[in-house]
Design brief:
35% strand, alpha/beta
């Protein structure tokens, strides 16, 4: 059995946490993702992508239901991550599933746009 893996970013108004369980990674984001946390988010996404590839994971689930706001700079970070996964050979790709709140308008609009970048590996659930 693979060793446990856990990554955490804690800020005054932003939290990100990732855990691996079997062939799946669970990610939870909460608070506000703005320019103040972009550097932390970039490092977090690079680290979780590297771990997902190292472990040959099949899926990464990203829960944004408690994320109140994400600015365009942080959305760009997610676009980078999605593009990076999509550019991998098909046997090295993993699915990314966003868990969103149906009542938060920015999530519906922004996550739909992100899913358009690589619909074969991205899905959005509310």
């Amino acid at each position: 059995m693979a060793e446990p893996w856990h990554q955490v970013v804690r800020g005054s108004d932003f939290n990100a946490e990732a855990r691996v369980s079997g062939s799946h990674m669970d990610v939870a984001l909460s608070g506000t993702a703005d320019l103040m946390v972009k550097g932390h988010l970039d490092r977090f996404l690079r680290t979780l992508h590297a771990e997902a590839r190292r472990r040959a994971l099949t899926e990464v689930s990203v829960d944004v239901r408690r994320l109140e706001f994400m600015n365009s700079s942080c959305l760009h970070s997610f676009a980078w991550w999605i593009s990076t996964v999509h550019e991998q050979p098909s046997e090295d790709r993993y699915r990314i599933v966003f868990l969103s709140s149906p009542t938060v308008y920015w999530q519906r609009r922004s996550l739909t746009a992100l899913a358009g970048l690589a619909g074969d590996i991205i899905s959005v659930q509310s």
